[in-house]
Design a protein that fits this description.
The relative contact order is 0.16. This protein has a single domain, classed as Protein of unknown function DUF1054 (BirA Bifunctional Protein, domain 2). By secondary structure, it is an alpha+beta fold.
Length: 247
């Protein structure tokens, strides 16, 4: 098995960080496509069936434009004097309902010295956050079992910010107070540059996703969104990614 990424992947971003301007990027655009974009798209394509074995309701879209891979171009509308390019590559694997309602997702971030997988909900809207809190109160045993499982603890760690005070309506002495005070419900799994460039990276990445799956299922169910293959899909249009209609 050949690795998806080589050391040239991180080399490109180290150079881009020193030369973050249009002239340098255009002169090295083919390097970006060959060493960054195309390998990442291949990873996304090969990850898709693995993701669907975890839950068929999450999207892994390998299209070069409008798919899971995020653009390297920064949004300069509100920061015209900033650097025009991202110095990392990332892909999002959202729930199929993400355009209609707040939903959890998977996020793979690859950056020199700072690669990680993020799973869950970062800064969810108050209504969605409250639904998760209510689910924790209703199912404390299940929640604790998920966080204490050996596989979860070996590959994932809870991250994000928390409020200093207990949210209104909840017992300040609740045994899961620290979890109820969370502003974010996310887990993080870290990867070294060597791991990302190894032939086994897709396998390591998939194992981290599988370890976070019970946590993600808890969040998804708390929001009354489908998780398993037996659940009805929210968005039929997601199927058009693989078989677009001819208009």
């Amino acid at each position: 098995m050949q690795p998806h990424f080589t050391s040239d992947f991180f080399k490109f971003f180290r150079q881009l960080k020193r030369h973050n301007n249009r002239e340098w990027f255009m002169a090295h655009k083919l390097e970006y496509e060959h060493n960054v974009r195309d390998p990442f798209l291949k990873l996304i394509e090969e990850f898709r069936p693995r993701l669907h074995s975890v839950s068929p309701h999450f999207i892994a879209d390998p299209r070069p434009h409008g798919g899971s891979l995020l653009r390297i171009y920064r949004d300069m509308r509100f920061r015209p004097d900033g650097d025009p390019y991202q110095t990392m590559a990332a892909a999002r694997f959202p729930h199929e309902a993400w355009k209609q309602t707040p939903a959890p997702g998977f996020y793979l971030h690859l950056e020199p010295g700072g690669s990680f997988l993020g799973c869950g909900m970062w800064r969810p809207e108050p209504e969605a956050r409250n639904k998760v809190r209510e689910a924790i109160v209703r199912n404390p045993t299940r929640w604790k079992k998920i966080l204490s499982s050996k596989r979860f603890r070996s590959l994932c760690e809870l991250s994000g910010q928390s409020a200093q005070r207990m949210p209104l309506g909840y017992d300040p002495d609740h045994p899961l107070a620290e979890d109820l005070k969370r502003k974010d419900y996310i887990t993080v799994s870290y990867f070294t540059d060597d791991q990302v460039c190894a032939a086994s990276f897709l396998e390591q990445f998939t194992k981290a996703v599988a370890a976070a799956a019970p946590f993600m299922e808890f969040l998804t169910s708390a929001l009354s969104l489908p998780w398993s293959s037996a659940d009805r899909p929210i968005v039929k249009e997601v199927l058009e990614i693989e078989s677009p209609k001819i208009r």
